[in-house]
Structures are given as structure tokens and as C-alpha cells.
Specification:
Strand content: 15-25%
Helix content: 25-40%
Shape: globular
Largest sheet: 3 strands, mixed
Number of strands: 8
Bound molecules: zinc ion
Number of domains: 2
């Protein structure tokens, strides 16, 4: 598949930011001629593949990304629903890139990696089970405050005793209680 080069912006490069940590990755996209011959953003989130660092975090624990509040979470759900209604019935190649919805709530700045044991201890069993599969989730500020994350500095892993540890976090094995 070739790209159409823009006379104004050439191959129109854009750096892919990691969805999770928002850092630039080595992934450089050549967007070529965009609708309206627009200049590509210098950097943006184009997909939900974790960068190598976040991939490592997800192996060791669960990434929690703080967002403003519940209303922001609801907004994301509304957007997800509307995306589904608009595009889900289309063939994959007709869906806007990357073919799935990328949530973009207002982030409050908190960012943590917690152990599986922490998740099991701090959250309801249903939520914990879900997170052990997805390996990440958004947390409204109220909730991150309530479970004590706000006092920690991220990214960290909480070990089995609830103490912060940059070393080897407990991600499997004995239960906390
Ligand atoms: Zn990342």
C-alpha cells in the first residue's frame, strides 16, 4: 500500500504516542496527504498497542490511569457507544483507523502500576477479575484517592504488603489475606 505524498507536507510524518504512558514511541507514521491536505500532528495516539515499557508493566502488574471524575468516565462510555453505532456494522477496512474506539478522557496525572494482589485486595472480585485480563484501566480521582494511590508516586508497583516497591513486585502467588 503506497501513500499519497502531500505537496505541502511531504510524507507528513507523525510520531505515535503510547496510549498508556503517553510517551513517544519509535513508531513513526507517514500519513502522506490527509483530508484537506492537513499537516499531521507532530505526535498522537494511533492505536492501543502498549510500548515496550508498558508491555513490561502489564506483565508484572496492572496499569491504572487516573482520570478526572466519574462524569469523564461516562463521557467515554457515551463516545464508545456512539462509535459502535456509527462504525461497528461496517467492514473493517471501512472503519476509521485503527478500526476500534480509542478512549480519550481528561487525565488527572496519576499513573500507577499495581500488583495483582493489590487489585484483588483493593477492588471488588468482579472488577479484579476483569483487570487481571485487561491489565489496565482508568480510575477516577475519587477512587484512586479512596484506595490510597494518590499518596504514592507513579509509576510504581505495590507489593503484597501494600508497600511501594520498585523492585520485584508480587504479581502472582499467595493471596494477600
Ligand atoms: Zn507506554
Amino acid at each position: 500500500m503506497g501513500i499519497r505524498v502531500s505537496e505541502k507536507h511531504g510524507v507528513n510524518p507523525s510520531c505515535a504516542k503510547c496510549f498508556y504512558c503517553q510517551k513517544n514511541t519509535a513508531d513513526l507514521l507517514l500519513l502522506g496527504k490527509l483530508p484537506g491536505d492537513a499537516e499531521a500532528p507532530r505526535e498522537a495516539t494511533y492505536h492501543m498497542d502498549p510500548c515496550d515499557e508498558c508491555k513490561g508493566y502489564m506483565k508484572r502488574g496492572i496499569i491504572l490511569i487516573e482520570v478526572k471524575d466519574e462524569a469523564e468516565m461516562d463521557k467515554v462510555e457515551d463516545e464508545r457507544r456512539s462509535w459502535k453505532n456509527q462504525y461497528d456494522h461496517l467492514e473493517d477496512r471501512k472503519k476509521p483507523f485503527p478500526g476500534y474506539f480509542i478512549p480519550n478522557p481528561y487525565r488527572e496525572g496519576g499513573w500507577w502500576v499495581v500488583s495483582e494482589d493489590f487489585v484483588k485486595r483493593a477492588l471488588t472480585p468482579e472488577l479484579a477479575e476483569y483487570l487481571l485480563k485487561t491489565r489496565w484501566c482508568f480510575v477516577p480521582k475519587d477512587a484512586s484517592t479512596a484506595i490510597g494511590l494518590r499518596d504514592e508516586k507513579g509509576p510504581i508497583c505495590l507489593d503484597d504488603s501494600g508497600e511501594s516497591s520498585e523492585e520485584q513486585p508480587e504479581v502472582s502467588g499467595e493471596s494477600a489475606s
